[in-house]
Specification:
The complex is a heterotrimer of chains A (about 260), B (about 300) and C (about 120). Chain A has about 260 residues and is mainly alpha-helical. Chain A has one domain. Helix content of chain A is about 75%, strand content about 0%. Chain B has 2 domains: about 220 residues, Rossmann fold, CATH 3.40.50; about 70 residues, Alpha-Beta Plaits. Chain C has about 120 residues and is mainly α. Chain C has a 3-stranded antiparallel sheet with strand order 1-3-2, with helices on one face. Classes of the chains: A mainly alpha (about 260), B alpha/beta (about 300), C mainly alpha (about 120). Chains A and B meet through α2, α4 and α5 of A and α2, β5 and α3 of B.
């Protein structure tokens, strides 16, 4: 009964757990409800794949054609777009919540980035496994392609992984950076951002055409090759990641 | 008492609007503070500034000597669930309860579980599907069970019925008694929480107009009623916070009467009556003088 | 619990009343600060102030680690104090009002006698 009288001084203020623990907690926060980042996309991907498999078999059975190498529906692109949405939601609704939990913007951004890299690696690894199976089974016995589109050519496991990893990282940070613009400047920010983006694209096209350098750009991608281009995308992803942090660092949660 | 938070000449501008205007005050360690003021007075902005969620335009804020802005050492011991708090997409109540202990070192799961029962919350329901009252209850539970050394409650009663509000007040008092901590309760329902408070901070149009001990504040104003000339004679030269009149009778609220003043008033045939915290604050935050000159 | 006076004064008064009417006999344990705070829905610091008012007046005494107790002789002291206050709070205004209405002390005494009989 004397607790009020003694009024102990709380000396723990000023002391935080180590950075690694704080970042791990942010990652756990994102995974507290695993449905959104893991279970739902995996289920949807599985359903799309199984539906495709059924359709391929149906076509093959009805047409007697066992070579579906021309059929490629790009179902795998779904994962990339889905991750862009996950990143957007993370910035928009988990960010203000984390701040209420006493997380700093820096810890939140670093932790979220770590999660994005982990998810990219996880999904890339999973897709790679299926891509290898797909190639090994000659496109599920039908020359079909789902996990390993023909245009990727002949890749080994590490190369498959790298292509998907860089693709997902790109979409995660594209989502994060775009959402950070919204979190920082709301609707006005979005309008200015997309207006600016449009202006930059038009200006680039104009610049490329007056300097007659379309060929050079094409040449760049050709000479970089598929893997090289994907590696270069990491630089763009890194720039977007830095831009996202620069924006979020001074952002305030609003309603 | 020691100050845990020191706010010095803090101003927050949004364009031409000064949401917080040159505010200076301290929060006392392990005391329950009422942050009172009308809607839009700047209560939420002030709490966002102290918790580093908002950036001050000028001035200084320290928590135990450290700036709270982007300071994990401070924020790790701080809990601020806003009235309009956003939750992660697709979160259910159970996810809030599951994740809270990772961020609050003093989190008490038993307390959290018993509060969920007190407020009869459906833990498997999505946050988005909750009623206003249930949403408030989630915020209250996080605030209480976190046992954070610096806890903010932002209008925590919205949508809660009288029973649930009293549950909150009772549980706050009971847990605070055993685990004292610095609490800031922002509200405009002053009468309901008046007795829970040890310190009172009143903000009006961004400016701190009262920052006082609740008990001394309660004794700081008195209503003096009587015949117009008697009242006017008595209040001349005193700070009059409000005045009402009906016919020839006037009732005036005056600040800081000494025992001597009181006996003078009584001898002059005036009636003295105490002023509640709510009345006092209404008077100080722009409650209009009511002049009802009823023609006889 | 709110007639406008400081709450800690009301708490002290409430406890004094319980001592005077025998609800809390001398040498009995007084409710703890947290119990008082919870019961009256007030801040524990306020309850502490109320208790301290009585401790300073010698009505209550602390026993470290055990709690707060009613002092021996507290009731008699409180009664004496209340009797003094009775004079100030009731007799003086009564006489003032009686004078205003033209009731002299003898008539007043008669009125009291009649009131007691009825």
């Amino acid at each position: 009964m004397t607790t009020v009288e003694t009024r102990p001084t709380d000396t723990s203020i000023g002391v935080a757990p180590p950075l690694a623990v704080r970042l791990a907690n942010v990652v756990r926060l994102h995974l507290a409800n695993p449905w959104t980042p893991i279970i739902i996309p995996t289920l949807i991907l599985a359903v799309i794949f199984l539906a495709n498999l059924a359709i391929w078999n149906l076509i093959a059975y009805n047409t007697g054609n066992e070579d579906l190498s021309n059929v490629n529906n790009g179902g795998i692109a779904f994962v990339a777009i889905y991750m862009l949405v996950v990143a957007t939601q993370t910035m928009n609704s988990t960010f203000p919540f984390a701040l209420g939990y006493g997380v700093t913007r820096r810890d939140f951004y670093l932790g979220s980035s770590a999660l994005f890299l982990m998810l990219s690696a996880g999904y890339a690894a999973g897709i790679t496994v299926f891509a290898l199976i797909e190639r090994a089974t000659s496109g599920w016995g039908l020359n079909a392609s789902f996990f390993a589109p023909i245009y990727l050519g002949d890749l080994n496991a590490a190369e498959f992984f790298w292509v998907y990893f860089t693709l997902l990282v790109f979409f995660f940070f594209l989502g994060a950076a775009t959402a950070a613009v919204y979190v920082r400047w709301r609707t006005t920010g979005m309008l200015v951002f997309f207006g600016g983006l449009l202006a930059i694209i038009i200006a680039s096209i104009w610049l490329l055409s007056i300097t007659d350098s379309f060929g050079a750009v094409g040449q760049f991608f050709v000479s970089a090759g598929l893997l090289g281009s994907h590696s270069w995308s990491l630089a763009v992803s890194a720039l977007m990641a830095i831009a996202g942090y620069a924006l979020l660092r001074r952002a305030t949660p609003r309603n | 008492m020691t100050a845990i938070v020191e706010v010095t000449n803090v101003t927050k501008r949004y364009g031409s609007l000064k949401a917080v205007n040159d505010a200076s005050f301290t929060l006392q360690e392990n005391a329950i503070h009422g942050l009172l003021g009308r809607n839009g007075a700047g209560k939420t902005t002030l709490m966002q500034l102290i918790t580093g969620q908002e950036f001050a335009t000028s001035g200084q804020i320290t928590v135990m000597g450290h700036s709270p802005v982007e300071n994990a050492g401070v924020l790790h011991h701080t809990c601020f669930i806003k009235e309009s708090q956003k939750y992660p997409e697709d979160f259910r109540i159970k996810h809030v309860l599951k994740s809270a202990p990772w961020f609050f070192p003093n989190w008490n799961s038993d307390l959290g579980a018993s509060l969920v029962e007190d407020f009869r919350l459906p833990v498997n329901r999505k946050i988005k599907k909750l009623s206003r009252g249930q949403l408030s209850a989630v915020g209250v539970i996080v605030g209480l069970a976190s046992r954070a050394p610096l806890t903010f409650f932002d209008e925590p009663y919205l949508g809660l019925d009288a029973v649930a509000r009293h549950t909150f007040y009772d549980r706050l008092l009971a847990d605070y008694a055993v685990h004292p901590r610095t609490v800031v309760l922002s509200t405009h329902l002053i009468d309901e929480v008046a007795n829970l408070l040890e310190r009172v901070i009143v903000i009006d149009e961004g400016a701190i107009i009262i920052n006082a001990d609740a008990d001394s504040l309660r004794a700081s104003a008195t209503t003096v009623a009587g015949k117009r000339e008697d009242v006017e004679a008595f209040v001349t030269g005193r700070e009059v916070l409000g005045r009402e009149s009906i016919g020839g009778l006037v009732s005036a609220t005056v600040a800081d009467l000494s025992a001597n003043d009181r006996s003078v008033a009584v001898k002059a045939g005036l009636d003295l009556s105490p002023v509640s915290l709510q009345q006092l604050i209404v008077r100080r935050t722009g409650g209009l003088d009511v002049e009802q000159e009823n023609a006889a | 619990m709110d007639d406008g006076r400081p709450i800690f004064v009301q708490i002290a008064e409430h406890l004094s009343n319980e001592i005077i009417n025998g609800t809390m006999p001398e040498e009995s344990r007084v409710p703890s600060i947290n119990e008082l705070a919870a019961f009256h829905r007030i801040n524990p610091a306020t309850a502490l102030k109320g208790i301290n008012l009585l401790v300073d007046a010698g009505v209550l005494y602390k026993q470290r680690g055990i709690g707060m107790f009613v002092a021996t002789g507290a009731r008699a002291e409180l009664l004496a104090q209340r009797r003094d206050e009775f004079r100030e709070q009731f007799i003086k205004p009564l006489l003032a009002e009686a004078t205003k209405l033209g009731i002299n002390p003898v008539q007043l005494s008669d009125l009291i006698g009649k009131e007691l009989e009825s």
